[in-house]
Specification:
The structure holds 2 protein chains of 2 kinds. Chain A is of the alpha/beta class. Chain A has helices at residues 48-57, 92-97, 100-116, 123-126, 139-151, 161-165, 169-178, 193-207, 224-231, 265-270, 296-310, 328-342, 355-358, 365-379; strands spanning 33-42, 63-64, 77-78, 128-133, 184-187, 212-219, 256-264, 277-286, 317-321, 350-352, 381-382, 405-406, 411-418, 422-429. Chain B is mostly helical. Chain B is 53% helix and 0% strand. The chains are: A alpha/beta, B mainly alpha. At the A-B interface, loops of A face α2 of B.
């Protein structure tokens, strides 16, 4: 990382101290980044307004799972997308080519682009791209075709199996759909995939490498193989997702997608776009410790790194959308990290886990959770942690239990801490 | 028969702890044997495979599971119970 020696576009950078997280330092010369579009499909609804209504009502999207061989699972609940009929949105040829995780992505991306009002013909398309997160990619396609060749003994699979299951399929189809001809790729960091993807998209727009980035993530892991694999770890709840509650007993999987338009702030202003929020900071860290057990220090470094990157004081953060998986280990570790990072202010800020409603979308979860952050900033409504029944002294923060709350907040964080010890935290500010 | 099951259980836990079966005493806790939470989940899987049983165990609330993991003695008793229930 040698600094540029000359040239008008050289940006001043402060020297990073050892121990800092990897994030660009110093805002001078960097572009501001606006969110000008949002789209989603998840267990709470097929679009943003229905999802935000569910957040306000504290409605739960978790129900009995419904797919082939579910009776052979010991975990039989999940936040499955309800009333999903791909033929409502795609033609026969598209359905043959798009795995469910791509279908979810394209639906969310179309909503986001429509809201932004952007068109990508000409020069803008050359300076725009897409970075998406997913953990399982085309897992349904793997599952169906393994079943065909192993269980059913077939010796032939459909010609599109590979382009359907590949983890970059959703990003590629999004680039094709909208003519995004700049940088596009997929990030896979398990439960932090979407936050890593959105953080990188933010950095690309901020650095001037791209003018507009579509970003977020998608997951469609609710099939026999996808849930069976998770069962093995014995961290899943059989009845409900109750983050931060003393009687929590594990996570509940979800599915769906969230996609956002991250746009150069000046570009958005110049064209009179409605700016939903400003992305102001991002940091990532690695625990470098254990493949499944989280580290409070690793999480804290990502939190403080995001604040530093955003130039925000801890006292400016009014709300955190927690990783809040509802496992014994995550929730107490996350609360310890927040308490340590914020000191006395930890007792004043609000922190909630919307996974209690939309489940854990694994690689897509940060994207759906960013909607709760935007709702907090834009509408002044804090999404609750539902299913909360008993206070846990190890999670002694204001977790906005069970009911949404009206509150004006100026800046928020969204946490994601993945298996593998990979942490990614994003900071947003009200516009 | 019971002794055989007892020995096979000890052998499985011992392998996870990188010990010999006769080094595993019945009052030893998983922690004493150096078995962490992931090691415990792995041991439970190995026991299920060995005896073709389903062990009710949620790593989030081990104390609430019907499967008592306090020490080797309780683990052996619980597995023996599940094996005899299966035979019945």
């Amino acid at each position: 990382m040698s600094p540029k020696k000359s040239g008008k576009k050289t940006m001043p950078r402060t020297v990073r101290a050892a121990g800092d997280t990897v994030a660009p330092q110093g805002a001078q010369g960097l572009r501001r980044v606006a969110v000008t579009g949002a789209g989603t499909i998840n267990a709470l609804g097929h679009d943003v307004p229905s999802t935000l209504s569910a957040f306000r009502e504290g409605r739960c999207g978790i129900t009995a799972l419904n797919f082939r061989d579910v009776d052979r699972l010991s975990i039989q609940i999940g936040a499955q997308v309800h009333d999903w009929r791909p033929e409502d949105y795609f033609n026969r040829q598209q359905i043959l080519l798009y795995d469910k995780f791509t279908q979810f992505t394209l639906l969310a991306a179309k909503q986001a682009v429509a809201q932004s009002g952007l068109e990508f013909e000409g020069a803008l398309g050359l300076r725009s791209g897409v970075i998406l997160g997913t953990a399982g990619g085309g897992l349904n396609t793997w599952d169906e075709n393994y079943r065909a060749v192993y269980e059913e003994g077939k010796n032939r699979v459909h010609p599109f199996v590979v382009p359907k299951l590949m983890n970059n399929a959703a990003a590629s189809h999004t680039s094709i759909e909208f003519g995004l001809r700049g940088p596009s790729f997929t990030v896979a960091t398990a439960c932090a995939s979407s936050n890593h993807a959105m953080g990188l998209a933010f950095q690309m727009v901020r650095s001037g490498a791209a003018q507009v980035m579509l970003t977020g993530g998608s997951e469609a892991m609710l099939c026999f193989g996808g849930v069976k694999a998770w069962e093995g770890l014995r961290v899943m709840s059989k009845d409900a997702c109750r983050p931060f509650s003393a009687n929590r007993n594990g996570m509940v999987q979800g599915e769906g997608a969230g996609v956002f338009v991250f746009e150069d702030y000046d570009h958005a202003r110049a064209r009179g776009a409605d700016i939903l929020a400003e992305v102001v900071g991002f940091a990532m860290s690695s625990d470098a410790q254990d493949i499944v057990m989280p580290s409070a220090q690793g999480a804290e470094r990502a939190i403080t790194g995001a604040l530093h990157d955003a130039g925000l004081a801890p006292e400016q953060i009014g709300y955190i959308n927690a990783h809040g998986t509802g496992t014994a280990a995550n929730d107490k570790t996350e609360c310890a990290a927040v308490a340590h990072a914020f000191g006395h202010h930890a007792d004043r800020l609000m922190i909630s886990s919307t996974k209690s409603m939309h489940g854990h979308l694994i690689g897509g979860t940060g994207a759906v959770e960013l909607l709760a952050c935007i709702m907090a900033l834009r509408d002044g409504v804090i999404a609750p942690t539902i299913g909360y029944q008993e206070p846990d002294p190890e999670c002694a923060l204001d977790v906005v239990p069970n009911e949404a709350r009206d509150a004006k907040v100026d800046a928020v964080l969204s946490n994601a801490f993945a298996f593998g010890g990979l942490n990614a935290v994003i900071a947003l500010r009200r516009v | 028969m019971t002794n055989t099951i007892r020995y096979r259980i000890k052998a499985i836990i011992a392998e996870q702890a990188m010990l010999e079966a006769d080094q595993v005493s019945e009052d030893a806790t998983p922690e004493d044997l150096g078995i962490d939470s992931l090691g415990l989940v792995e041991s439970i899987f190995a026991l299920e495979e060995e005896f073709d049983i389903s062990i009710p165990f949620n790593a989030n609330e081990p104390e609430k599971s019907d499967f008592d993991i306090t020490n080797m003695g309780t683990i052996i008793a619980a597995v023996e119970r599940l094996v005899s229930q299966k035979a019945a």
